[in-house]
Amino acid sequence: MNLSTPIEDIPRIGPVYQKKLKRLGIKTVQDLFFHFPRRYEDFSNLIPISKVKINEICTVYGKILGIETKRTWKRKMFLTEAVIEDKTGAIKATWFNQPYLTKTLRKEDNVFLSGKVTISKNGIYLSNPIYERGDLSSDLTHTGRLIPVYPETAGLSSRWIRYILKPLLTDLEDQIDETLPKEIIKEYKLMPVKKALWEIHFPSSVELSQKAQHRFSFEELFYIQLFVLRERNRLNKEKSVSLPIKLETIQNLVKSLSFKLTDAQKKSAWQILKDLERPRPMNRLLEGDVGSGKTVVAAMAVLNTVKQGYQAAFMVPTEILSKQHFQEMAKLLQDFKVNIGLLTGKQDQFRSKKLKNQIIEISRKKLLEKIADGEMDILIGTHALIQDKVKFGKLGLVILDEQHRFGVEQRAKLCRKQDIVPHLLSMTATPIPRTLALTVYGDLDLSLIDELPKGRKKIITQVIKPEERKKTYDFIGKEVKKGRQVFVICPRIEKTNDNEQLSEAQMSWAKVKAVEEEYEKLSKEIFPDLNIGMLHGKMATKEKENIMKGFKSKKTDILVSTSVIEVGIDIPNATVMMIEGAERFGLAQLHQFRGRVGRANYQSYCLLFTDSHAKKTHQRLKALISSEDGFALAEKDLEIRGPGDFKGTRQWGIPDLMMNSLKNISLVEKTRESAKQILIQDPQLKNFPQLRAKLSQFRERIHLE
Ligand code: ADP
Ligand code: MG
Fold first, then answer.
1. What distance in angstroms lies between residue 568's CA and the mean position of ligand 2's atoms?
2. Which residues lie at CB < 5 A from ion ligand 2?
């Protein structure tokens, strides 16, 4: 047997367990070794029975005086009771619903029991202790030490994993080769892999378990850094078109605006235009808070591309947004004689450069022709853009608004017919904490729009208690009377049927406000004389569009919606953002919602409704009230919720135990430095086959995205 032996060939693992392991992505012995615990239980406190204390977690060792299983009086549960004795005394142990225990543990056996000392009217006992047979010289696995607890998955207990893992590790440890380059192990004083595997699964002390974790955290981040840095190097060798800056045209665009660009907009636009000038593909992330004005910066890049004879594609996440961007682009570029197309799921549109303000419907066939022969300068749309049928004649620039981080993949799909790689600009209003910008987004250059246009009023943010609901509705009514509009966000769509049988998780979900319910309540009971609209992701496109049109043209006063409204919707007349079940959303998302209002000069409000009393919720909502800085909020979100909730983080497959390393800036910087060193030494990683293998794993995972 060796590290690449498939789990099917491990004698103790039967077909049922093979399936379960596969579901976790564990296919070989090696995978099993690198399936890390999530945390540890400390059972190292081994004491004489006479010394046990109530509520303390401890391990005792003794002989079983007796053990039996009975049914509890309700006849619903098995209760197993045992008494064990050492030289100093005896103690009872009880287990629920483990009747087979009387087969494993017998009278006269010597056992270790680890668990919590509990008290009832019949005295003290160990409640559901973990057991292990053996004697005092045994090398313990489940008790009497720090024991690993693995991520829970149906039917795979931590006990079973320990039972399988330990003998394998013992037998095969000599075959485990170091995975990190020697010089890095040395320079950063990392624990060697063999020792680290032992210490991460069966630590001899808390300190050593942490050293092992540190080593593997370092390793995970190091791989990510290698991947993104190599990705960068690779793109730097690709050819793209050089699009020299058409200064006069750009200046004319800036002059035609009804506002002055902020310094941050100018700086970002300049960085982007400079990138376009290079014959290498741009690979840039434009990061700017909601309302910071990314669209006009994108328009400058688009115009420059088009005026150099190339096409620009602009991809957005929803149809509503594609339409909005289409109209916005048509308006921003109306003086510049460009053809703009809109390609969505169904209905396509076209604004020819000859028709200044007129938008016409166009057949899909016509539109595709215009894209292929290069007549279409700018194409805006949803995911429909990456279908096989869409072939660009001369694509020079791809812009992605609020897409996944893996824009590189999408670009690859967009330009599969071309021999040049178009420039890529990815835009996001989700501020990315610094550690993540340097790791999971580390292959992108960054432009920040870190200031809002002048004169925006601060949005008043408040948590609304249940008893203040009525008062708040009155306030909303008054805003509408003043001519303003209101968003109401609910966490889910449908109300639940009262007769349904619900699981506990469903019950808690059922209490969450539903769009349909809220819509009914608002339109029938609270504001019968106002116009209320409803919007959610399950509606037909046409319907959604009509609803948005109605809201934009002020026919609707209040729009009840799910989070589809989240990104990019621009309704300057809206002044109230009311969020139901605010505890259900992350800080970054709440901040996004808030950014939907305050887009004109009216005082605006963000009202957070919650029935939750959880401390974390209030901590989060407080952070939202006290800060309008999206970047600060993102850092806070990272701190409170952890990196796993950030877009683009999960697909790297970082084990739970290592996730927190993504918060550690000094570790991130160290790993980046070390990855750079290695790549300078050996850009192709010729001498590091293991590293190359790991990187192709990453690429595969990202492809599956
Ligand atoms: P986002 O970055 O969220 O995509 P938008 O590009 O939609 O922001 O811009 C938000 C609003 O601000 C738009 O109505 C836009 O016309 C306006 N805007 C953009 N830049 C400025 C500026 N420098 N001064 C004033 N208003 C601006
Ligand atoms: Mg936007």
1. 4
2. 568
Question: Residue 376: which CATH number?
Answer: 3.40.50.300
C-alpha of 127 from chain center:
38
Residue-number span of the structural domain to which 66 is assigned: 45-144
- Which of 255, 257, 259 best tests ligand 1's pocket when mutated (most atoms within 8 Å of CB)? 259
**Among the atoms of ligand 1, which is closest to the Cα of residue 288?**
2
What's the pLDDT score for residue 702? 66
Q: Is the pLDDT of residue 549 over 90?
A: no
Same domain, 585 and 469: yes
Q: Is the pLDDT of residue 509 over 60?
A: no
Model pLDDT for residues 73-95, shown as the tens digit of each residue: 777 789 999 999 999 999 999 99
Residue 94 contacts residue 80 (beta carbons within 8 Å) = yes
| C-alpha to C-alpha distances, 680 to 228, 281, 563, nearest whole angstrom | 14, 22, 45
Assess whether 423 and 309 both reside in one domain. yes
| Amino acid 705: pLDDT | 47
The pTM of this model reads 0.77
Give 457 Cα–ligand 1 centroid separation in angstroms. Answer: 14
Ligand 1 atom nearest to CA at 294: 2
**CB-based contacts of 449, cutoff 8 Å, min separation 6:** 262, 264, 265, 268, 286, 287, 288, 289, 292, 293, 294, 297
Q: Which of 260, 427, 570 to mutate to test the pocket of ligand 1 (most atoms within 8 A of CB)?
A: 570
Q: Are residues 118 and 256 in the same domain?
A: no
User: Which residue minimizes the CA distance to atom 18 of ligand 1?
Assistant: 293
